[in-house]
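Working notes for the structural subgroup meeting. M.R. asked for a predicted model of this chain before we commit to crystallization trials. I am recording the input and output together here so anyone reviewing the notebook later can reproduce the run.

Input as submitted:
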Amino acid sequence: MEIIAVDKIEKFVRKHANARASLASWLLIAEGAEWTCPQDVKNHFRSADILSGNRIVFNIGGNNYRLVVLVRYRNGILLIQKVGTHAEYDRWKLD
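Returned structure, recorded in token form:
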């Protein structure tokens, strides 16, 4: 998959160094993936939440962090929308 807006992850890990390894692992898996439907994502990340509008919420680092991406399955693109702590995620409006 092509991942757009990786700079959001880079900015986040400057403030949250404990998330670096987990997010790097997610990036490695996602870049090498060929997801064509939500089930493909769930096969790699069972705890991922599939939302409306082709968005996915990934639990990162033992559920300490959240990563929200927009996926375009046909194009093989993941757009990083938000990355934050679990507490920050609880305040986001993702309707």
